[in-house]
Amino acid sequence: MVVRERLICRSDALADSGDGVRFEVKRGDETVPAFVVRYHGQVHAYLNRCEHMPMELDWKPGRFFDAEGLLLVCSTHGALYAPDTGVCLGGPCTGALARIEVDERGGGVYLKG
Q: How many domains does the chain have?
């Protein structure tokens, strides 16, 4: 089986604690929304689905961080997540956001596999 990577965005499209980039991934027969953000210089990607209720997190396309740029926040119910781990830190959620494996190299952010 050949593993193919897919370019999500250029590295410079992601400012630290700034807007994220939305993209889609296949999960079985379904195509689901996902996003990538930069936090403390590292890129992190997750399914765009709150663990409290299956709703997208961003309040405007690409807006995932709170006003201070410290936490990812669900715009619908206020669930708070750690940007680097996806772990629920407060609000109506448990567990963590579903992580997606990405790689940053050569000026781009790539979806693995």
A: 1
CATH code of the domain containing 63 = 2.102.10.10
User: Could you report the per-residue pLDDT of 35-46, keeping only the tens digit for each?
Assistant: 999 999 999 999
3-state secondary structure the chain: CCCCCEEEEEHHHCCECCCCEEEEEEECCEEEEEEEEEECCEEEEEECCCCCCCCCCCCCCCCCECCCCCCEECCCCCCEECCCCCEEEECCCCCECCEECEEEECCEEEECC
| Pairing outcome for strands 80-81 and 72-73 | antiparallel
Residue type, 29: D
Residue 55 belongs to a domain: yes
Write down the pTM of the prediction.
0.93
Round to whole Å and give the CA distance between 112 and 71.
Answer: 25
Mean pLDDT of the chain: 93
- Whether 93 shows a pLDDT value over 60: the answer reads yes
